[in-house]
Each structure stands twice: as C-alpha cells, then as structure tokens.
Specification:
The chain is mainly alpha-helical. The chain has a domain at 20-62. The chain is 66% helix and 0% strand. Residues 1-23 are annotated as: Disordered.
Length: 65
C-alpha cells in the first residue's frame, strides 16, 4: 500500500496573514463609514431638516439583523 501525504495546514499562519483582502475591505468600509458620518453631520448642520432621513437610515441599520 502507498501512503498519501497531504499538504500542511494553512491555519498555522496568524489570522491577519491569512486574509489580507478582508482586512483591506474592512479598512475601506471603515473609511467609507467615517466619510458618510462626517458628510451627514455637515449636511445636518447646514440644513437641520436633513436629520430626518439620517435618523431613518440609522434606525434601518440598527434593525438590519
């Protein structure tokens, strides 16, 4: 009988080294979130009635799950 050898597990690498794309996506998402938050804050300061859709979007995000 012959033995079959498998490649070593990839899980030996630290978590941050395994998924660099996810880390990049999270950074992009975080930057987009901060931009949206600052843009909404400036818009609300310029026109206070714009707070209504901002609150609606925030409530939708909170209730998403």
């Amino acid at each position: 009988m012959t033995e079959t050898h498998t490649a070593p597990a990839v899980t030996d690498a630290p978590p941050h080294a395994r998924k660099p794309r996810r880390r990049t996506q999270r950074r992009i998402a975080k930057a987009l979130l901060w931009f949206a938050l600052l843009f909404a804050a400036v818009a609300v300061l310029a026109e206070p009635w714009l707070l209504v859709p901002v609150v609606a979007v925030a409530a939708a995000l909170i209730l998403w799950d």
